[in-house]
């Protein structure tokens, strides 16, 4: 009988480091034994975001009821909105033999790591802090105050890289994607 080697994979890094770009390319190259964990949030959808694909957009009351039911592996408030990882979704997918990739903020990652020490943890870092600032400013989507806040948060987040199994430097997206594929294969294909 084939051993279920499905894993929970935690993927985090500072805002602006390129997590979304890396994951977009990763999912094009990875096999179909991994799924992206779709978080619940109380924030309003941005242009182009689809409910059930990017997030599950729910009301604050619905979210708070789910908190009372202990339905989240982790949840946090960010910029006045709730974000949370549905425990049932993660557990069901792993039981089905699918690994689950969870892209979350550092605080949520650290919380999940306490509850799920078996998780594979990956931190994405920029080649330099200056490059991160350049990328954030290059988005042209946020105020100066917001950028400064994100950079301060990033300084703190970068102090936690030693808590992760793997650290990938996103200098070149293609190289970062290849490293992620290699980690995924190493963690899920061995001992099958």
Explain how this protein is built.
With 192 residues, the chain is α/β, with parallel strands linked by helices. The protein has a single domain (8-189), classed as P-loop containing nucleotide triphosphate hydrolases (Rossmann fold, 3-Layer(aba) Sandwich). The protein is built from 7 helices and 9 strands; from the N terminus they run E-H-E-E-E-H-E-E-H-E-H-E-H-H-E-H. Strands 2-7-1-8-9 form a 5-stranded parallel beta sheet, with helices on both faces. Strand 5 and strand 6 form a beta hairpin. The radius of gyration is 17 Å and the shape is globular. The N and C termini lie close together (9 Å).
Task: Give a quick precis of the structure.
Helices cover 42% and strands 21% of the residues. By secondary structure, the chain is an alpha/beta fold.
- Can you identify the CATH superfamily? P-loop containing nucleotide triphosphate hydrolases
CATH fold label: Rossmann fold
State the shape: globular
The percentage of residues in β strands lies in 15-25%
- Content-based structural category: alpha/beta
Largest sheet: 5 strands, parallel
Q: How many discrete structural domains?
A: 1
SSE succession? EHEEEHEEHEHEHHEH
Would you identify the CATH architecture? 3-Layer(aba) Sandwich
Instruction: Identify the CATH class.
Output: Alpha Beta
Task: Please tell me the overall pLDDT.
Answer: 92
Helix content: 40-55%
With strands numbered from the N-terminus, the spatial order across the biggest sheet is: 2-7-1-8-9
Radius of gyration: 17 Å
Please mark out the parts with pLDDT under 50 across 5 or more consecutive residues, or reply none: none
């Amino acid at each position: 009988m084939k051993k279920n080697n499905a894993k929970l994979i935690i993927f985090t890094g500072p805002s602006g480091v390129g997590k979304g770009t890396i994951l977009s390319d990763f999912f094009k190259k990875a096999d179909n034994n991994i799924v992206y964990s779709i978080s619940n949030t109380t924030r309003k959808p941005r242009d182009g975001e689809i409910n059930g694909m990017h997030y599950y957009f729910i009301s604050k009351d619905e979210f708070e009821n789910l908190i009372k039911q202990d339905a989240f592996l982790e949840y946090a408030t960010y910029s006045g909105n709730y974000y949370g990882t549905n425990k049932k979704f993660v557990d069901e997918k792993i039981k089905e033999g699918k690994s689950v990739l969870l892209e979350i903020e550092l605080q949520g990652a650290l919380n999940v790591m306490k509850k799920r020490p078996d998780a594979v943890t990956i931190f994405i870092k920029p080649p330099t802090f200056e490059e991160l600032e350049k990328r954030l400013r290059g988005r042209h989507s946020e105020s100066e105050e917001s950028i400064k806040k994100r950079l301060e948060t990033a300084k703190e987040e970068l102090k936690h890289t030693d808590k992760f199994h793997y650290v990938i430097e996103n200098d070149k997206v293609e190289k970062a994607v290849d490293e992620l594929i290699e980690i995924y294969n190493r963690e899920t294909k061995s001992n099958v």
